[in-house]
Amino acid sequence: xxxxxxxxxxxxxxxxxxxxxxxxxxxxxxxxxxxxxxxxxxxxxxxxxxxxxxxxxxxxxxxxxxxxxxxxxxxxxxxxxxxxxxxxxxxxxxxxxxxxxxxxxxxxxxxxxxxxxxxxxxxxxxxxxxxxxxxxxxxxxxxxxxxxxxxxxxxxxxxxxxxxxxxxxxxxxxxxxxxxxxxxxxxxxxxxxxxxxxxxxxxxxxxxxxxxxxxxxxxxxxxxxxxxxxxxxxxxxxxxxxxxxxxxxxxxxxxxxxxxxxxxxxxxxxxxxxxxxxxxxxxxxxxxxxxxxxxxxxxxxxxxxxxxxxxxxxxxxxxxxxxxxxxxxxxxxxxxxxxxxxxxxxxxxxxxxxxxxxxxxxxxxxxxxxxxxxxxxxxxxxxxxxxxxxxxxxxxxxxxxxxxxxxxxxxxxxxxxxxxxxxxxxxxxxxxxxxxxxxxxxxxxxxxxxxxxxxxxxxxxxxxxxxxxxxxxxxxxxxxxxxxxxxxxxxxxxxxxxxxxxxxxx
Length: 506
Ligand code: NAD
Fold this sequence. Notes:
Number of strands: 21
Largest sheet: 7 strands, mixed
Bound molecules: nicotinamide-adenine-dinucleotide
């Protein structure tokens, strides 16, 4: 089987899953919402209903927090030996790999993304993350501290890392399963229990994943999923007094609201937020390589990527060549339903996102940008996709950085291309953003590469590459792109308290 096709039996499995309304998962059981209400999950390729999902509300968050507390206090979880916790995480990674095609197809239907991306990135990354964090329970050591107490007291001082308790996790729709796993893997590796809210646009892969979590042998209540809107379910998680930490990925505006709501009981807060990342081309770069990479940096995942290389700064010497290369690539991208193996770019996730992105393209035109590629709906789509949320890969030449499309995160397949002359001015422009998530630098010159890497205020810098991430490498943002670093050892600190123990040996 290739990575972008799936068998008939996998199609049948996914259709079976979609054929009945999908409840939440609380205390190890699939349950309806307390209200008994449901909402539609929409297929972005057609605009029609895929299935129904339980419409949770704050009462369901209460139920989930109660289940998560019971699981946290239960010796079957709390006293589980580190190697056994690691074994559960490895078993879960195995199950994700065994069900990879099914999970990828479900993700592709629900989010709209190409099957190949769902398979390699969403599902592949999720398995890798659980495997990486499976190694930590037996290795996340405290320390013995060489203290100097008054009066020559003979003491031993050591530290331990302890789980915070019940973690609330709120995730977006762009990488639904893997964004959930970025939080679940370190939270579970460090012994917490979780109440998780997927985005209302894309609840399905998370609900299926949590079934696999139970199948792997995690005790009931260790992971609970409450589905429903952010304004009710998400807000209830952020404010809940029974939750000790909230981990959020999404927009900067909502991240700010979550941080404020969390002050009630002074929850620990980590935030992965938006970006408007500069992708910088120096005069010695290879124009063909850069054009291909710049197109991939923006159009990957329909541009719905927090790290999208959305501001392409090209040195004046290479500008025309790189622009025409990117335009050429944008025009050749095959746009279609994510579940078609030929598709390279799928629809946007929702009608709302489609409207937002089209509005930005119009503002780009109105403010003096030149639409050099795309800007509309693809002409080649079959009639059954007439109701889908498709936008062409779009390239806008921007005369200056003042355009709204250069300033604001679009979260869609819209690239702005800008010309630069002087390095100091380039650095000032690249950093003139409230965001600081990521940046790309394209050059063969080592000194220029590292000088720019030091000057750009962003959490991740890619030199002659773009969008590489790894469970072992910390990820997060400067400025309004977030608080804290997910992945790698740094993520463990987000989910633990450090205890300092003093022993009088005298
Ligand atoms: P969003 O902020 O609208 O929603 C994110 C999540 O928050 C969803 O589950 C939503 O239901 C919930 N939510 C909404 N209102 C809430 C509230 N008042 N209280 C609590 N929760 C609430 O963002 P989105 O539209 O789902 O995702 C797009 C945004 O996410 C983009 O800005 C993008 O840059 C950002 N993002 C960042 C990263 C990262 O790692 N930094 C990754 C993916 C997406």
